Amino acid sequence: MKTIDTIYVNGAFVKPHGTEVFDLISPTDNGLIGKVILGDETDTQLAVAAAKEAFKTFSQTTKEERIAYLQKLYDVVKQRECELIEVMVKEYGGTLHFCTMSIQNALSGFTSAIEVLKTFEFQKIVGKSKVMLQPLGVVGIITPWNASNGFICSKLAMSIASGSTAVIKPSEMSALQTQLLLECFHEAALPKGVFNIVNGRGDVVGATLVNHRDVAKISFTGSTAVGKFIARSAAETMKRVTLELGGKSPNIILDDANLEDAIPMAVSAAYMNSGQACIAGTRLLVHESKIAEVKELLKETVEQVKVGNPADATTVLGPMVNQKQYNRVQEYIQLGMEEGAELLMGGPGKPEGLEAGNFVKPTVFVNVTNDMRIAREEIFGPVLSVITYKTEEEAIEIANDTDYGLQAYVSSSDVMRAKRVASQIVAGRVLINGLYHDPLAPFGGFKQSGIGREMGVYGLEEYVEPKTILV
Ligand code: NAD
């Protein structure tokens, strides 16, 4: 069992001033796998001071220097890729397949920042003026547990690309993953204070960052509830915010779609990251004339979904991250039944033989209406709600009748038709006939899925502020 008893401030692993101990529990069997000593307000203040000092010189570095730093970070993370995947499977319970992809995304955070930086112009002539895009200053990076190192890498990469410095507060549940990543980052020997990491609670370390007058921006990924709280608090010091929040993504299967392809893809979209994904396609919209066929295909597909040991390469669904998350998903399954939805697959309780961990049965509800809470609220577990529609217009209306707007999916045998539908959906990304990721294209949400965009040029622009020079 490992105890993480350091945080990272000003280029060094140091003992935190905070003394609170947080247990790290395996999601797979609920055994104790580690402990982390949490940082506190004092630790956060020291980290911000280090980042502020480092900003004086780091903000003056050239693009070429920053590209070299990003390349170093890429190299050191790449070297320990396998260990990073392993610790993610162990601590988070993500499947081997998902964790492998997640660490690849972490790496692509660095390569895409390099790509963007190569052609990004930090100075422009606008009208008769010179406009300089200046790095913001100290950035507070706050991340969730569901792809911890991926978010840390992509956010830090953009912070570095801009010439800003950072204080990172990862989820306290990800301490083993953070520690290994930190060992990699330390190897890269960046200037002291360019990044600092303080393990700690959201309402302590996170809140100190959000309220700190020397922090210029908060880049947050997490729940909509905490995102709203951060936005309100950040207004006090006029911080810039990028908020990547929750989702309840619609997946429209148009009546001309090839169901043999679309339904397995829909199950993958709903159950990705064991259902603990902000972009999960959890509302499946099906033409009423196709529902019988869809039900059959859903049964066939979901029966094949293997739940179990996340380290096994054939596992599709791992456990929920902790017992609290397990209970939350169970409550929603119960609620779906009480609301009158028809349980097609899965249901309450744990799959047989997996009682020790936080495993959930892959669950599908049909006869769901879009006003039910299981169709409106983010469940964050492997629960798919199937809703029928009569016309294309109604499908679009249902898709958009949500507080969220992060991602959406459309399937059709006519790509032009799918694109026409996609253009009417209020979401940051719409995926047509497949599951894709583009690390250079903007990512982020409409409505209560967030504010701002990450990735690519749009992502970098969120870390700079225009300054006009008139002579
Ligand atoms: P969460 O909001 O509970 O926590 C996220 C982070 O915020 C954690 O580090 C937490 O410690 C911190 N935090 C909590 N209270 C805080 C406060 N008062 N001030 C500052 N920081 C605080 O989210 P979670 O449970 O870790 O993650 C799951 C949520 O994240 C889901 O809602 C999911 O949709 C969302 N998410 C969104 C995206 C996206 O890109 N849009 C990606 C992944 C996850």
From TrEMBL:
Q: Which Gene3D superfamilies match?
A: Aldehyde Dehydrogenase, Chain A, domain 1 (3.40.605.10), Aldehyde Dehydrogenase, Chain A, domain 2 (3.40.309.10)
What protein am I looking at? aldehyde dehydrogenase (NAD(+))
Q: Where is the Aldehyde dehydrogenase domain positioned along the sequence?
A: 13-469
SUPFAM superfamilies cross-referenced by the UniProt entry = ALDH-like (SSF53720)
Could you tell me which InterPro entries the record lists for this protein? Ald_DH/histidinol_DH, Ald_DH_C, Ald_DH_CS_CYS, Ald_DH_CS_GLU, Ald_DH_N, Aldehyde_DH_dom
Residues in a coiled coil are none
Similarity annotation: Belongs to the aldehyde dehydrogenase family.
Q: What is its EC number?
A: 1.2.1.3
Q: Cite a single Pfam family from the UniProt record.
A: Aldedh
Q: So what does this thing catalyse?
A: an aldehyde + NAD(+) + H2O = a carboxylate + NADH + 2 H(+)
Molecular function terms from GO: aldehyde dehydrogenase (NAD+) activity
Question: Which residues of this protein are catalytic?
Answer: E244
UniProt cross-references to PROSITE patterns, sorted A to Z:
ALDEHYDE_DEHYDR_CYS, ALDEHYDE_DEHYDR_GLU
Q: What class of enzyme is it?
A: oxidoreductase
Mind listing the UniProt keywords for this protein, alphabetically? Oxidoreductase
What superkingdom heads the lineage?
A: Bacteria
